Amino acid sequence: MGLGVFVIANDFTALSVAIPRIEQDLHTTLNRAQWVINGYALLFGVLIVTGGRLADLLGRKRMFMVGASIFALFSLLCGVAPDVGLLVACRALMGVGGALMWPAILGLTYSLLPPDKKGLAGGLILGVAGLGNTVGPLLGGWLTDVATWRLVFFINIPVTGFAVLVTRRRVPESRIDAAEHGIDYPGVALLSAGAIAILIGLDLANTDGFTSPLILALLAGGVALLAVFLLAERRRGERALVPADVLRNRVFAASSAAVLLMSAIFFSALLYLPQFMEVVLHYPAFRSGAGLLPLMGVFAVTSFVAGSLYGRLGPRVTVSAGAALMAAGIFLLSFSAGGSAYLPLVPGMCVVGVGVGLFYSAVTTAAVTALDPARSSLAGGIVYMCQIAGGAIGLGLNTAIVLSAATLSHGITIAFRVDAGLALAGFAVALGFVRGPRASPPHAAAPAAHHRVRA
Fold first, then answer.
1. Cα separations (Å) of 121 from 30, 86, 94?
2. CA 71, CA 61: separation in Å to the nearest integer?
């Protein structure tokens, strides 16, 4: 299942260095080619909550298999796409497959591990995700340079196929009784429409600013749809897409809020550090991608050890420590980005990497284990949606700051300090409200009455 996580995470970053070649090969513009990345992230972020609920209701193993099949099929179609329109459409549908896979993998992993090893689940998943994010720009750049960007899509097929084969043979099914709860189709429609409107508005605001009437309408309409969604969910009880016990759980709500506040750091670092290297340091694209290795490599390694730290220290200490390190790291980078050398960036990237590795794996485990095991895939989906939304909002704010500055370096310095301020707010939320037992809560030791695991 980790291979499924790897291809999802790899595809977020692998094509970032291939956009100029896609423009050239398909005779298109930068604005259209960028939707090869944006379309994937948009559909993934919008549908991941729905994917989590479907996994809990219809079977996590089944949803992983369906999502992986969709992901592989549209990877193939992306690889042979003759024009940018078909490429963007198939790429967006790959995001649908990813949105079904990710929460199902989280739910299955947490259900497979014993109560005293729940922290390991978040570390494993986030560690593999960090590895995929790290390898992405290097692999994408190398394949684009020596052959073609289309190979980035083709390699997904055998990897995903192998993951499906092994999971089908070795992993038991896990789900709750769908007949008791049903699927909240109105909730799916309202949440999807609201999230799409907001994420498209934020994406367009990165280039057009926040004063455009279209962008203001998209943002206002999205917020209104989400407000209607929350009101409608209260009336649907257990049939709701996001049931009331999820919304009322303080630890889960605090974990989600902390993720929302902290995510600007990771997304901004991934966008603006390579830009600094290319524009100020005059690095080529592949070298800029390699320049992120101190951040991404440390993130991946830390994620793998974060599970054992979570078991020893508990959620409050682990999550708060990760948030504090992220704030400190981005503050360090705000000074380094004002210079004209690479080496001063390395300490800040390493500190951010340690913080990201601790924070995301620990906060995911804290959020998932705060709820009934029957909600694990849904919980993972909501947390990841908060990460996407927080990153999109943070990028919009950072972009507005950078564009208004006299130079790129000065803009990045100010933006990173604003991110540090947001991170301090996230740290306060984590320290004050993210709590729980060192091991998983008692209900995690045995499935609830309506939850069943089938061999």
1. 39, 37, 25
2. 15
Domain covering 2-183+241-454: architecture:
Up-down Bundle (1.20)
Tell which residue, 373, 392, 339, 449, has the closest CA to residue 115. Answer: 373
Q: Which is nearest to 152 in space by CA: 6, 18, 292, 34?
A: 18
Please check whether residue 141 is in contact with residue 285, taking contact to mean a CB–CB distance below 8 angstroms.
Answer: yes
Reported in sequence order, the residue ranges of 218-301 that DSSP labels E, i.e. its strands, are none
Residues contacting residue 423 through CB under 8 Å, at least 6 positions apart: 261, 262, 264, 265, 323, 326, 327, 330
Distance of CA 315 to the CA centre of its chain: 20
The model carries a pTM of: 0.77
Tokens 């299942």: give the residue: 1
Instruction: Report the amino acid identity of residue 184.
Output: D
Handedness of CA 302, 304, 306, 312 (dihedral sign): negative
Q: Which residues of 260-280 are buried (b: 16+ CB within 10 A; e: fewer)?
A: bbbbbbbbbbbbbbbebbbeb
Side-chain-side CA neighbours of 313 within 13 Å: the count stands at 17
As a whole number of angstroms, the distance between CA 28 and CA 75 comes to 20
Residue 350's identity, in one-letter code, is: C
Residue type, 204: L
SS3 324: helix
Give the Cα separation of 438 and 369 in Å (integer): 11
Q: What is the torsional sign of CA 154, 155, 156, 157? A: positive
Is 119 in contact with 362 (CB distance < 8 Å)?
yes
In tens, the pLDDT along 90-143 reads 998 999 999 999 889 888 888 888 877 777 777 788 788 888 887 887 888 788
| pLDDT reported for residue 200 | 80
